[in-house]
Amino acid sequence: MSDRLTEATGTSLVGGAEQRSSRSLPLLLVPILGAGAVLALVPLWLGDSGVLMGVAVLGVAFACYTIGFNVIFGSTGQLFLCVGALAGTGGYGAAILAEEVGLPLMVSIAAATIASSLIGGLLSFVAVRRSLGVIFTGIITLIFSLSFEALVLGLSSLTGGDTGRLIESGADTFLRDRIPPYYLMLALALLFLFVHGLLRRSHVGWAWRALRDDEVAAELAGVDVARYRVYAAMVGGAMLGLAGATFAFTEGRISPTTFGFAEVDVVVIVMLAFGGIGSLFGPTLGAVTFTIVDEVLIEFGQLRLVAYGALVIVLFLWIPRGVIPTISDLFQRRYRIGRTPAERGASPGPEAPGSEDRG
Amino acid sequence: MIANILDGIVLGLQFGLLAAGLTLVYGLGGVLNLAYGQMAVTAAMVALFAMDAGVPAFLAVLLALVAGGLAGLVLDLTVLRPVYRLHGEARVLLSLLLSLGVAFMVDGFLNWRYPLKALTLGIGGGPVEILGVPMRRGSVWASAITLLTFAALFAFFRYAALGRAVRSVIEDEEGARLVGIDPARMLRLILVLSGGLAALVAVTRSMVVAVDVQAGVSITVSALIVTVVGGLGSVAGALLAGIILGIVSIVAADLIGTYVSLIILLGAAAGTILVRPAGLLGVRD
Q1: ipTM of the complex
Q2: Does A126 touch chain B (CB under 8 A)?
Q3: What is the pLDDT of residues A110-133, one digit of tens each?
Q4: What is the CATH class of A2-345?
Q5: Where are the domains of chain B?
Q6: Distance (Å, rounded) from C-alpha B249 to C-alpha A246?
Q7: Regions of chain A short of the pLDDT cut 50
């Protein structure tokens, strides 16, 4: 029975996983360090301008957010529309713990990270338990996002309400220099990439691919779908919380818009969709591209939003799978490397976002 | 307290009509239109410019309804074309993302060109006494129009051949196709209707409070929450959920405060999804 099931459903999946895990660690580390080396040169170029370095730090923070979102949505198909709220849990949580409760900086960052990881896990657990589909998971997490925003506005004695909260702690350290925050955020992004890369080639990544491609088949083949979904949400939630907390301390001021739905979630979705949902380097490419695009378009004010909207439409119509999977597909079709015959035969027609996993 | 409940019903009726437009499109075509609020705002702006140009208010409102319907038609003929080629969750997801793109474009354009515009339809005359509570004449008018529209909607879906055809597609698309109903045409019709409903809500809302250019996102979000609570694809559910949520939000805002009331509203929506994923009167889950 189980043999037949594997044959009917999981053959290509298992093949793909084996092929992946046979690659050695350097093959994972080299591209990550390569990307890191390129991004590490940015301060040489922009280091003189405080404003542009601020933009760069924000860009890398968004790369971190997008990687976290990719772990949740790209790996397991859970549409978490609360990226900003989870990052905000980290940011506001760490700031409040450090300044109102008086915990040391590192402890409060760690506690806030754990909190946002647990919230992510809880949301995922509820969604899995009630077997909510993509859309309802999206709506539940959107509701969490909106509640978080209302809470931040409502608890103005702690959060500073609409005007935001100034963060005094860490003000006299390297966290507020011009260049060190950039390297700190970059180190975080590389760490996230490394963790995501490691997870992808472990049994966890195998289960993620299985349950995302066909949930029922994965469940039948013995994958504990609920558990691996919650894992993804906890790992992604921790990444978002840690990135949000770190960003808050380097910024020195957080407000509802720092972690707002329109300001974070929407942008992160566009970045991920551009780079490639589910691919390892898609989030980084998307974040870098859109940070530059945003900076170029900044003088157009509200018209920037029009450009964004047009870009979203064009993106999803022409390259629904994102840049990295599309390019890597072209490359692989030309050189016929690393694909099973079945995959090679499959037509690469337009597919739903989130249904592919390459890069 | 009675005043609050009456205010809640006024708001709730508008919530309900708003959700009806969104829920029909979702129930019929599996399309989640996140540009819904922007359709409403566009229609409101059409009414505003028409009135600024000296068109009488009644005609301006009609123009707004036509503009809303046209917006639905344009959406159907352009961005949603590729969406119809997909099925199931992939279709919902693509429709959601593409209409989000449209929402950005409309929002960006309106905020850039007319950042300070807002539509207010002043209804003259003093307050009207209802159950011993003096209600603003605008609120009464808005609620009466909304109720009439709901009655028309129910009659359309129950008695008109076209309305029954739409219902048959919601229940079973394949079966409807077999008896000669073209689901694509029904969907186009419903998108036009949905645009008209969005426009109507924008216009009636402006009799109670000003509808400004930035209102798009919050209109979409309210419509989405009410839709989810009421049940996807159910007009009656939209009405019921709208009234309940309207009352809850006004009463909670008065008793506890605005932010907490929003959280209670959101909590109610989340609770409904968790307890009854199909919504109060959902057609299917």
Answers
A1: 0.82
A2: yes
A3: 999 999 999 999 999 999 888 888
A4: mainly alpha
A5: 13-123+132-213
A6: 36
A7: 1-22, 339-359
